[in-house]
Amino acid sequence: MKILPYSVEKQLSTAEKIQYYNKLSQYCKELSLSIPSNISLGQQAISKIYMKDFYNSLLEIEGIENLPKNTPAIILCNHSTAHDIFSMYIAMAKLGLPTSVMVATDCLSPFSKAVFASAKSVFLNRNDKISSSNSILQASATLLAGKYLVVFGESTWNLHPTKAMQDIKKGSSMISAITELPVIPAILEYIENPSVVENEKEIYKKIILRFGKKYETMPTDDISLKTLEIQNQMEEMRKSIWIENNINRTDISFVNPMIYLNHTYFKKYGVFGFTYHSEYESQFLRSNTGDAIENEYCINANNEFVPGITYKKRK
């Protein structure tokens, strides 16, 4: 079974779209029969190991009342650190909800890939359109088997000092249309200590996971417009968390360059098993308008705080 490109799907009549999504749904229901619905051993292991240290006193979960009570859902989450996948597996385990996370394999070390495989993640290679298409079908089947699904729609980390969200991809809305299950927008916000630090762990003083109100996508909906609607809600959710925690990112002039650069450097290069390769990752940023995309700031040769990449220091 193949996922049609969005440009082709847009040209289908209403009847053709309904037929197309019915076929996708039936295919995924057949795939789901071989997928266990319980919390995986990997999800349990991640929770036990990481809850003892990084997350035990930092993680706060809000908006639980927005999660469906009798069915799973797609959790569409922002993406900003190497901890996000662990954060979501741990939070969902705390809530007693069996979960799979969509994970890009093209940037993982063998160790990280093995860890996420044990947690029954849905893998995709962002450089391979066939892999990306198959991951949507596998993710839909996982939902239909009874598991929650976490998707990081921005495709790569958002390291921008003021931008609440990078543009998100349409996969979550498509999965919702295939499965007839809702999308729950979610924001993971790592509240940072307002000071220069000496290692990555010192950056964070609190982690907030906030679930928003659900969105449902029908096969006859415009997938692109539905995705934009959800993205707008996620941007407002994240800005609300900033305001509540006295974080001012309304303009670049309110950002302390030295703190931003220090924290961003450790996020990119200070986490075991992960290194963020900015130039490689930039190809996966998606703009819905075609505009140039900023994702990081640096200090240039004139000592100005401007869009750009901070590279790893040589030892």
The helical percent reads 25-40%
**Structural class of the helices, strands and pairings?**
alpha/beta
Number of self-contained structural domains? 1
In whole angstroms, the N-to-C terminal distance is: 50 Å
Strand order of the largest sheet: 1-7-6-2-5-3-4
Question: Could you name the CATH class?
Answer: Alpha Beta
- Biggest sheet overview: 7 strands, mixed
Query: Rg, please?
Result: 19 Å
Give average pLDDT, whole number. Answer: 92
What is the count of DSSP helices, taking H or I runs of 4+ residues?
10
By DSSP, the count of extended strands is 9
Which percent range describes the beta-strand content?
5-15%
Low-confidence stretches: none
SSE run: HHHEEHEHEHEHEEHHHEE
CATH architecture: 3-Layer(aba) Sandwich
Global geometry: globular
Q: Any descriptors?
A:
alpha/beta; 7-stranded mixed sheet; two-stranded antiparallel ribbon
Structure, explained:
The chain has 315 residues and is of the alpha/beta class. It has one domain (6-255): Glycerol-3-phosphate (1)-acyltransferase (3-Layer(aba) Sandwich), CATH 3.40.1130. It has 10 helices and 9 strands. The protein has a 7-stranded mixed beta sheet, sandwiched between helices. α5 (110-118) links the parallel β3 (99-104) and β4 (122-124). The protein is globular, with a radius of gyration of 19 Å. The model has no long low-confidence stretch (mean pLDDT 92).
